[in-house]
Design brief:
The complex is a heterodimer of chains A (about 140) and B (about 425). The longest helix of chain A is centred in the N-terminal third of the chain and has 11 residues. Chain A is an alpha+beta fold. Chain A contains 5 helices and 7 strands, in the order E-H-E-E-H-E-H-E-E-H-E-H. In chain A, strands 1, 2, 3, 4, 5, 6 and 7 form a 7-stranded antiparallel β-sheet that branches. In chain A, a hairpin with a 3-residue loop joins strand 2 and strand 3. Chain A folds into 2 domains: about 70 residues, VC0802-like (2-Layer Sandwich); about 70 residues, 2-Layer Sandwich (VC0802-like), CATH 3.30.2130.10. Chain B is α/β, with parallel strands linked by helices. Chain B has 2 domains: about 325 residues, Rossmann fold (3-Layer(aba) Sandwich); about 100 residues, GMP Synthetase, Chain A, domain 3, CATH 3.30.300. Chain B has a 9-stranded mixed β-sheet, sandwiched between helices. A 4-stranded antiparallel β-sheet of chain B has the order 10-11-12-15. Chain B has a 4-stranded mixed β-sheet with strand order 20-19-18-21, with helices on one face. In chain B, strand 5, helix 8 and strand 6 form a beta-alpha-beta unit. In chain B, helix 2 packs across helix 3, helix 5 crosses helix 6 and helix 10 crosses helix 11. The longest helix of chain B has 22 residues. Chain B is globular, with a radius of gyration of 22 Å. Chain B starts with a helix and ends with a strand. The chains are: A alpha+beta (about 140), B alpha/beta (about 425). Chains A and B meet through strand 1, strand 3 and strand 4 of A and helix 11 and strand 20 of B.
Amino acid sequence: MAVQISVFIENKEGRIKKAIDTLAKADVNIRALSVGDTTKYGILRLIVSDNEKATKALEDDGFIVKESEVIVVSVPDKPNGLNTTLAILDDADINLEYIYAFVSSQPEEAIVAIKVENTEKAIEVFEANDAKILTEEELEKI
Amino acid sequence: MFWNEKAECMTKEEKEELQLKRLQETVRIAYENVEFYKKRFDEIGLKPEDIKTLEDIEKIPFTTKSDLREAYPLGLLAVPRDEIVEIHASSGTTGKPTVTGYTQNDLDVWGECIARGLKMAGAEKDYIIQNAYGYGLFTGGFGIHHGGNKMGAITIPISAGNTQRQLDTMVDFQSDILTCTPSYAMYLGESREKAGIPIEDINLKAGIHGAEMWTDEMRKRIEASLGIKTYNIYGLTEVMGPGVAQECGEQNGMHLQDDHFYPEIINSETGETLDYGEKGELVLTSLTKTGMPILRFRTKDLTSLIADKCECGRTTVRMTRITGRSDDMLKIKGVMVFPSQIEKALLKIEGISPNYLIHVTRPDILDEVEVKVEASKELFSDEIKEMEIVEKQIQASIRSETGLRVDVTLCEPETLPRSEGKAVRVIDERNL
């Protein structure tokens, strides 16, 4: 399991840039990110090197920040790789909320962050099916 | 229990006799000394001596805000300048400011009215009043100040703003009464919670709040976050300033100081006088002002009057909470809507900030309303699905309050205007 921070982004010019800027100034490294967007606002989701530092810097700059849990899973970097992993959730009737990818340094491995309705149950079925869930320590090495 | 029992608990007959005597005197002073009133009376052949009963007041033409603007700055004085000792002005957000000049008599009356209100809020001579209304041309700061002085209480002229200092003052001086706008009171309450100051560390007992519209939902929040009982106060620069009316501990209508101001309720479209209990526009006539007497001033504030004696024992007429202004009423898709209704709807939702902006447009032939609301940590989620639920909740709440389907947009915190004075809540871009 990993902690993801989400940032509310008003639909206004330069707001994502401003959030990224804030993180850069706080010396926080971004490991993965995705943006969920609607016509009116966006949700910037991040996995970063230092959650506490990132949250504080963003809040000090007036952003709304929320921490939530996502599952980070290693997926074989080949056709059908992700499909196999998602099939595990599907078979267990677990709803996928969203998914996004990391940049991996390993040639054989892709890494994805997954948000599901029931995190505990998802971890259970991943483990039962030998899917590789990354620990916090492993995440730091990416 | 009463600051001035004789004035506040008169019988109907005593009061009407006093009001008529004072009305006749005010009309005479205005006619003889103010060109504007003389002209208005002469145009319709009205003489001061035609005012023989209180009902005769209906013969007098209304005075409007634009009349006051045309007389800017001091065209409506009824006394030579050497008798004026203080000047205040409205903020002028919607045009040229309106100015009022006060004689020493007027300041005494003002202090008297505020002192009555302070007493309603439980004040005693040794009470510390933390006066966080803005000091300046705005009537809030000095009005309360004059009343504190009149009572002999201890007034801290801290003025609006500098929240840290406000909180320090509450704790260090153990202030008893807080006076400020309701939105600032709410902000101070939130700031106390954020700063982690235990409620036991402050000693506030009462808050006297006015100068902008507020709702019962807001009252509940202020009372809980500061541990106080709140008292709605009403007034306006054109007539005097705060203290024209204020709630007592019953919190059931504001006691209008009707030995100094004569109230009427009219239908704002036809100008026809309405009965007690009927809702309409408040019209005020000063009964004791000497510097700038004002006859039948149309306040644009919508309220109704309660004639019955209050549980507290006072017989002064009461006015109900202002529910809107005849000029900020919006007609959207043919439905009458007041910003206060939107505010009420918003405050029913947990975690919402009372800062909002109503944006009305007519892109084609139909009106569209967008309500911008500041998002907060409580409302925010990492999932769009959840955020949509929040928006729908807000929409549903506004719909049940106003009957309108509106578009809700969440904005980043601290991006909508907030005020120490009066906030802009409506942007209407329709070409009507």
